[in-house]
């Protein structure tokens, strides 16, 4: 996906809506960005996956 879209999604899902954590490193969560998919996970078990169509 293009960088602008990736940044938009990162900003949108920066904070976990479940526990409020904004940490995505240090084993507290992760972000995966692929060509057509954005995935954000959190240590509390929350995760979201967004499919982006180009
Ligand atoms: Zn969380």
User: Helicity level, as a percent range?
Assistant: 10-25%
Strand order of the largest sheet: 1-2-3
The beta-strand count equals 3
What ligands can be seen in this structure? Answer: zinc ion
Terminal-residue CA separation: 7 Å
- How big a fraction of the residues is strand? 25-35%
Number of domains: 1
Compute the gyration radius: what is it? 11 Å
How would you describe this protein?
- With 54 residues, the protein is of the alpha+beta class.
- The chain has one domain.
- It is 19% helix and 30% strand.
- A 3-stranded antiparallel beta sheet has the order 1-2-3, covered by helices on one side.
- A hairpin with a 3-residue loop joins strand 1 and strand 2.
- The model has no long low-confidence stretch (mean pLDDT 90).
- The structure holds zinc ion.
């Amino acid at each position: 996906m293009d960088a602008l879209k990736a940044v938009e999604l990162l900003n949108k899902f920066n904070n976990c809506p479940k526990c409020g954590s904004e940490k995505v490193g240090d084993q507290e969560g992760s972000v995966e960005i692929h060509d057509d998919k954005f995935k954000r996970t959190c240590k509390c078990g929350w995760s979201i996956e967004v499919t982006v169509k180009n």
